[in-house]
Structures are given as C-alpha cells and as structure tokens.
Amino acid sequence: MATEKKDLDWGNLSFAYQPTDFSYASEWKDGAWDEGGLTEDHSITLSECAGIFHYCQEVFEGLKAYTTAGGSIVAFRPDLNAERMHDSAERLEMPPFPKDRFIDAVREVVAANAAWVPPYGSGASLYVRPFMIGSGDVIGVAPAPEYHFHILVTPVGPYFKGGLKPIKLCIATYDRAAPHGTGNIKAGLNYAMSLKSTMDAHRAGFAENLYLDSESRTYVEETGGANVLLVAADGTLVVPKSHTDSILPSITRRSLVQVAQDLGIAVDERPVEWAEVKGGAFVECGLCGTAAVISPVGEIHEGDEVVTFPAGHDEMGPVMTRLRETLTGIQDGAIEDEHGWVYKIV
Ligand SMILES: *Cc1c(COP(=O)(O)O)cnc(C)c1O
C-alpha cells in the first residue's frame, strides 16, 4: 500500500522543527530499558531535579531517511549511528541503548512516519534525531539513576538551495574540545560551548569556525559540526587526524574515505598543521557531515590573513565534486552500493 504523502512544499522546506505523527520513546529504570515504542506525544515531562538540567548528561545522533529512485525509504549506515551513540553514552556514564534496538527503533519510527518522508527528487529528507538524557533526580554530582531514549523525526529541505557555493571559514579564537576530552563523542555539551564562537563567526560574515587543536593550536581539527577534508596539489585526499582524540568520527567522512579509495584517489589520514594550509599546500577544502555531505570551502581567514583554495574557490573543486556525486549517487541508488551502506526501511 502506497503511503499518502503529506501536502508539503518539499523543495522549499527549511531546517526547522516540524512535528510529525510519531516519535519513539524508551525509558531506563531499575537497571534496564523498558520495551519502548511509538508515541504521539512529542513532549517529555521531567522533574526539576533531572540529571540533564544539572550535570548535562545528553548524547545525540543525526541521520537522514529519504526516498530512492526506486521508491524505497532508506537510511544511510544507521549501524554506525547506533555504534557511535553507544560510545557517546559510555563516555558520559549513561547506559547505552542496545545497538540492535537502536536500528529497530529508527526503522519503526521512520516507517510509521512514511507520509513525512519527502519524495525522491525533492532534495528534501526526513531528519532523524535520536537522543538520550539523564531523566532521574540527582543533586549530588553523579550519573542520573534513570534515562530517556527518544527519537524525533522532522522533514527538512535541501541543504543547498542556492547551489554549492564555496563558504568562508575563520580560525576560532575559542577552543571546541579539550585534548582527550569529549570532542570525539556526539554530546550536546560540545555544542553549548561552541555557540558563542559560532555566533561571533556569523556576525563577522563567516559560515563557520575552523578549530585548531586546543593543546598546541598547531593542528587543524574540525568545525563545530563537520569534519574537514583537504586536497593536496597532487590530488591526494588529506584527512586531518587528531593526536589528542578530539575530532568527532563523522560517518560521512569515513564513507568518503572509502569512496575515494574505491575511485583510486590516494588518501592520507594524518595530523595536518595549520601552517601547511597557510603555506598553500592544498588546492581544495570541504566540510563533511550528514546534512550537506560535502560543503565546499573557498577561503579560511585568520585575522587579516586569507588562505584560498585555488581549485575550489569560485565553485566546488573537481575532487570534492567527484566524491560528493559518488556518495550521493550511492545514497540515491544511482550507483551500486558495493558496501551495503543503504539500509532499506520500507
Ligand atoms: C555530527 C558531527 C559531525 C558529522 O558527522 P556525520 O556522522 O558525518 O553526520 C562532525 N563533527 C561534529 C562535531 C559533529 O557533531
């Protein structure tokens, strides 16, 4: 039975919250997760003493469900989101939501909201946001005694409405992640502390900040919500790596590294000094994450100094374009999914 789609202007949706028919909810109490299930209630009622309000136990994920050319509703590599959320939860002393149940919950909530999954070709998708919070009461500093796992879904429009125009970044004056801290997990706390520098960057006319490692301010790390990719003059894809484990393991980045290898592009994952970038070692730069796959970067500013990427300054460069088209082709079903990344929901 074909689902009657909601009457929305899919191609013109923004990235704003739009409640759908169902969310998914499960609670952890007395040492175990309950059965969980769909709910039409999109609110969560908590005690004023819930752990989330005081000691910030919160982790989240972000993935997209979308319609392929063949008409299936699919998600991209939800197993990696399940795994990453498991790791994030452990780092904050939260009980991980079982990985197989995470995937089942994503499937269940997306299938129940099939009418909200944008049609193929609209460029829009259903954004899936699993999150977990400490919901039990705590006043002394300790992990909360109870937790909520919740998935909300909301339709979002195409990321690039005006085409893939290269953006400008600036080197952040604040740090994002402490060495060996929480930069490698997906937790709201990392975002709270980056909002000031993000807004400062926006007020100064930049799309995003580029953070250097906070230990030495020598190495390129990432932006507030996306990993960095660089292309050297000889065409090698160079992927910044952290000595201090403070870069978030982006699923898009890990997929693009595999795509590059499949395409015969040399890949070098290593610490990258900001001085190399300033010295003109790279001809293209991009940011990668679920939302945009790759956003091209044309310039990075540090005070009055400007670094430009000659092969990707006016429009997305050839290597970034090839990587992006290949990955989006695999996602849409136009290119064979050799690695089994596209997970069929309906
Ligand atoms: C979510 C996120 C990314 C991108 O990860 P994807 O899995 O590719 O969406 C990159 N950096 C940070 C800090 C993030 O929170």
What structural keywords apply?
eight-stranded mixed β-sheet, binds pyridoxal-5'-phosphate, 26% strand, nine-stranded antiparallel β-sheet, alpha+beta, 346 residues, single chain
Give an account of the 3D structure:
The chain is built from 8 helices and 17 strands. The chain has helices at residues 51-55, 78-91, 99-112, 188-192, 195-203, 251-262, 274-278, 318-332; strands at residues 23-29, 32-33, 37-39, 58-60, 63-67, 73-76, 125-134, 147-156, 167-171, 208-210, 227-232, 237-240, 267-270, 282-289, 293-302, 305-308, 342-344. The strands form 2 sheets. Strands 1, 2, 3, 4, 5, 6, 7, 8 and 17 form a 9-stranded antiparallel β-sheet that branches. Strand 11 (227-232) and strand 12 form a beta hairpin. Helix 2 (78-91) packs across helix 3 (99-112) and helix 6 crosses helix 8 (318-332). It is globular and about 55 Å long. Pyridoxal-5'-phosphate binds next to helix 6.
Compact summary:
With 346 residues, the chain is an alpha+beta fold. It has helices spanning 51-55, 78-91, 99-112, 188-192, 195-203, 251-262, 274-278, 318-332, and strands spanning 23-29, 32-33, 37-39, 58-60, 63-67, 73-76, 125-134, 147-156, 167-171, 208-210, 227-232, 237-240, 267-270, 282-289, 293-302, 305-308, 342-344.
